[in-house]
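I am writing to request your help with a piece of structural work I have in hand. The matter concerns a single protein, recorded as an amino acid sequence and a row of backbone structure tokens. Could you please explain, in whatever detail you think fit, how the structure tokens follow from the sequence? Thank you for your consideration; the sequence and its tokens are set out here:
>
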Amino acid sequence: MSMLLQKTLCIIKPDGVRRGLIGDVVSRFERVGLKIVAAKMLIVDESLAKKHYLYDDIVFRHSETVWNSLIKFISNSPVFAFVVEGVESIEVVRKLCGATEPKLAIPGTIRGDFSYHSFKYSNEKGFSIYNVIHASANEVDAIREIPIWFKDNEILSYKRDDEFEHYYC
């Protein structure tokens, strides 16, 4: 298998699920040729939220207040977690998602089309940023995050029709 073939974790956050955006978001990945190799809808308990959002990392980069709001937000209603596979999928998925801060996300990206909040507004109001989707930031994060959300036997292997060679006579 090529080293360029990667898997990455995506989570449609509670705001995206509540707005009925699951199909819109997933179709963007499929339309560019990426595969969904695992998927589930669930309500995140506090334990899972804390495994995903590492306290030391979030507090170092932001604050304890931000960490608390992330834990509260991701566990307040259902999320749709899925694993995307494809050539350099981590980078491709991040580009399709757009900037983490919605006000900086360009139109045509998931966040640019479906969200608009700013970090400043969210901090002022005391809630987590509503930016529709989480995507692993890099290969190290993807390797750490996927097993938190999925067991090995929940991740499937298959070929899309466009991966088969077609011969016409």
